[in-house]
Every structure is written in structure tokens, then in C-alpha cells.
């Protein structure tokens, strides 16, 4: 077990979140920094995720490190029946850091228990995806100038969407007000509402995606409503367009409002929003690079400020 | 006379362990946790016996075996009110309650088919999150379950 491993956003304190945001900002100003010279990083993607993998690999490359790995379990020895433990132990012999994505929940935690090499969880099933949360926090902080006292509206699939759950949990330090906008099938699970109550987080639930809710928000965080989540396909057809954001709905929104989306988007944000300066989802994805550079340095115990002085 | 006959229906122990006050519907889970299927000593299992507190209860008597502390505490997972009697030479030499540990390793199977513990040759591990209604959470996938609903391996 390496204490620099990152399995869940829960592992990161308020102070460390703020520190990582500062470091991400530093990397945004100096994206090419050869502080990983001589380091080898493995990206083990047991489940394909092009976006996340490219972002992590770009981060390593821009820091001057080298990348080995695979992008699909079919091309790795797990297709021959090798256990996760064996794969991790084998790769640990070669590299300084493992970044892994797995289709099974808890895979990253287990991996940290079988090796002393630091591990960054790049998504384990429906469970955790801390680097996504970190880039969301960085995007919110960057666009609003703060994380404290914001009104955040979460829209779409609030039941299965791990990004909204992790964001909600990470925001507990910053006194947020949440609006949950979803249909009955996909509403925020009870355990997360309990979590809000335990931490004194204010929230309201809505079935309507109304301009009233939008106009009260600082951040609109939209997620995709997936057809496969519905047992009744008629129900999906009924609700699929109810939670689509259109440009006209943003007419009276606050000046500082930004629209976030973890991507990929299908039709939950109309194309006509793309040119609105409030649309932030593409920049948000770019922020992922800087947030991940900060997380990689954290995992390797590298202090960029000290390195920069050299 | 009738009274003592009733009691003798369950064999008295010279040496061994009695686990009493197990809720009837948890008896066979307790059997599993104790791992007594493989034992060759005398074992008496009673169930649906009248009990003022539980309505009906189960009881397990195992001759010549004294379990490690850890095993008793695992019983707390499914029978927090169970009582342990240690018998030596027909005398109860120790009476005690079971105590729920903070972490439960092995024993319980995670109910999430997509959990790593159901797909790798490894032990499960749960953290007790609510001691009142004995809710446990998988340390790996995070799924919670009431221990009375949990599958015991």
C-alpha cells in the first residue's frame, strides 16, 4: 500500500483540494514541465475509455515521463485469465506509477493493497473516478473564483451518475446549495440525500427543468440520461427530452453561470448552447489535463514548486 | 419431573461451547459462521425453541470445542444478542455476550455482482457503519447491506 495512491475523492481533504487546484492552475500556466524525466507510468485500461486515457497520457507526456500500458483488457493478459493481483504485481516491477481503469467496482482499492507502487484510480465501474471530480472542482473554482457558497444544479441521471455523486461529496467542505433535477427513475439516491443532511448541505429536488432553477444557479452540471438505465423504454422516450438544455433557457441566467458536462454528450445539451459563452464543457475537458498533472505529481510525491526553483 | 425431561431433550455438555439466544431465522447462518459442518465432535442444534424475548430462538451446543474470540464476534453480525456459555465439567465457567467487530474479513459475500471481491480470488472486507441495525459496507465497492440480509459464505 502506497499512501500517495488515490482511490476516491474522499481520500482528499479540503486543504488538499485547494492545494491541488493551485497546482492545476500552475500547470495551466506552465503545461510543459520536464519533472517526470526518467519516470515510467503505466496506463492500465481494463475497460476502454479513450478520453480519460488520452488526458492522462498527455499529462505524463507533457511532464516529460514515458508511458506504457494497454487500452483494452482484450489485449492484456487478463484475457488469458490472469488475476488483477498478478497483473498489478507484474507491472509494479516496471513502473513508478500505475493509472488504472477497471470495469469492476473496488478494483482500484484492491490494487493498492497488493503493491507499494502508487495507483491512481481512473474509474472503477460505477464506483469512483476522482480525477474527473478534481477537474470538475478546478473548473468550478476557475470560473467562479471560489468554491465556497455556490448554488449548483445537477441535471439528468442523478441515480447512476458517479460524477454527480463524487462532486456532491467533495463539495461538502464548501457550503454549497444543490438543486437536483431528475425524473423519478433517475432521482438522487436516498443515501446521498442522507449524506447532505449529515453535512448540513442544503438541497431541493425538482422534476421540472425550469428557468427558475437555472436562474438561481452558479453552475449547471448536466449529465447524460442513458437509455439502458430504464426498465420501461416508453418511460425513456417520455423523459429523454425533458432534461435537454437549450440556449433560450439561459436568457435570464446569472452572468457568472457556467454549464458543465462530463462528456460525452448526446442530446442533453442542444448544439445551440455551444456558442454561448456560458457553455464551458469543452474547456472543462481541457482542465482535466492540468488537474491530472497535479494528481500525478501528488501520487509521485513531487513538489512542483520546489522543482520549479531548480 | 416433566420439567427436567424437557431440558434433557437437549443433551447436557461435559465440556464445550453453547451459543444461545440466536434468532431462529439466523440459526443456520450461525452454523455456517462457526464452520461446524466439518467437525466430528458431538453437536446439538436446536431451533424454534420458545423464548420470551425473541419469540423463538435457536441454540447450538458443540462438545469439546472452544472457538477463538474472533469467531464469537462474527456471530454478532447476525445475532447481536447471542450469549456464549463455556462449559467445563458440566459447569458454566464463563458466560458472555458477543461483540461486533469494526471490520469483518471473509465470511460475508458482497451482494454486488460487479464488485471486485466477486471476481478475484480474494477475501471480502466490510466496515460496520451502523451498530444499531448492524449495517455493513463493502470496503471495495462501497455497497451497504444489513447484515441480517447478507450472504454468508
Gap from first CA to last CA of chain B: 43 Å
Look at the helices and sheets of chain B and give the structural class.
mainly beta
CATH topology of the largest domain in chain B: Alpha-Beta Plaits
**Poorly predicted tracts of residues of chain A:** none
Apparent shape of chain B:
globular
Number of H- or I-type helical stretches of chain A: 11
The biggest beta sheet of chain B reads: 5 strands, antiparallel
From the alpha carbons, calculate the radius of gyration of chain B and give it in angstroms.
17 Å
Major sheet: arrangement of strands of chain B:
2-3-1-4-5
- Beta content of chain B: 35-45%
Q: How many distinct folded domains of chain A? A: 2
Mean pLDDT figure of chain B? 89
The 3D shape of chain A can be described as globular
Strand element count of chain B:
11
From the N-terminal CA to the C-terminal CA of chain A, the straight-line distance is: 31 Å
Most extensive interface between two protein chains, with residue counts? A-B, 16 and 16 residues
Order of helices and strands of chain B: HEHEEHEEEEEEEE
Short description:
Chain A is of the alpha/beta class and 310 residues long. Helix content of chain A is 38%, strand content 15%.
Task: Output the keywords.
heterodimer; A: 310 residues; alpha/beta; Rossmann fold; five-stranded parallel β-sheet; four-stranded parallel β-sheet; 11 helices; 15% strand; B: mainly beta; SH3 type barrels; 2 domains; five-stranded antiparallel β-sheet; four-stranded antiparallel β-sheet; 3 helices; 14% helix; 39% strand
Can you lay out the helices and strands and say which pair or pack?
The complex is a heterodimer of chains A (310) and B (153).
Chain A: H1 14-29, E1 40-45, H2 50-62, E2 66-70, H3 84-92, E3 97-102, H4 107-114, E4 119-124, H5 130-144, E5 151-155, H6 162-170, E6 177-181, H7 190-198, E7 202-206, H8 211-215, E8 219-222, H9 233-239, E9 258-260, H10 281-300, H11 304-309
Parallel strand pairs in A: 1-2, 1-3, 3-4, 5-6, 5-8, 6-7, 8-9
Helix pairs in contact in A: 1-5, 1-10, 2-10, 3-4, 5-6, 5-10
Chain B: H1 2-8, E1 16-23, H2 27-34, E2 43-51, E3 55-63, H3 69-75, E4 83-88, E5 91-97, E6 103-105, E7 108-109, E8 125-130, E9 135-138, E10 144-146, E11 151-152
Antiparallel strand pairs in B: 1-3, 1-4, 2-3, 4-5, 6-8, 7-11, 8-9, 9-10
